[in-house]
Amino acid sequence: MVRSEPQRTALTADEANAQFREEAAELEFPPGYVLPQEPLSGQAPDGAGIMYGAGTGRDLAQRHWRCAWFRQLRQADSEAERVSVLGRLSQVPELRHHPAITAVRAGDFGELDRYVELNCPSPAK
């Protein structure tokens, strides 16, 4: 009988940040978008250590990607640029019918603005 290692359910901040960087390296961000180097802290404000769920770094990189392109969509200068960004976002199955994307296709940017305001981390500077 072969024993397999149990799947880890928690990551240190260093491990989660490494996972973030690995995932981000696989994603194409808009030109000029700057990712944070160490987005996840290892210490809470009270000094206690922090552990992260197994996919936290990956999920955070994907959220940065989604938010970067949502901002790009909002800032598009032309209809051609909007169509290009919508095409990129539509390549991701779970975004094809995202309420904010559906609203933008109908000409309403309010849902997109709300999503970015409530869910998107500020870009690194």
Shape type = elongated
How many domains make up the 3D coordinates? 1
Number of strands: 2
Name the structural class: mainly alpha
Notes on the structure:
This protein is mostly helical and 125 residues long. The chain has one domain. 50% of the residues lie in helices and 3% in strands. The chain has 5 helices and 2 strands; from the N terminus they run βαβαααα. The protein has a two-stranded antiparallel sheet with strand order 1-2. The longest helix has 20 residues, at 56-75. The radius of gyration is 17 Å and the shape is elongated. The model has no long low-confidence stretch (mean pLDDT 91).
Brief rundown of the structure:
Helix content is 50%, strand content 3%.
Describe the SSE topology.
Blueprint: E1 10-11, H1 13-25, E2 52-53, H2 56-75, H3 79-90, H4 99-105, H5 110-119
Antiparallel strand pairs: 1-2
Helix pairs in contact: 1-2, 2-3, 2-5, 4-5
Provide key terms for this protein:
125 residues, mainly alpha
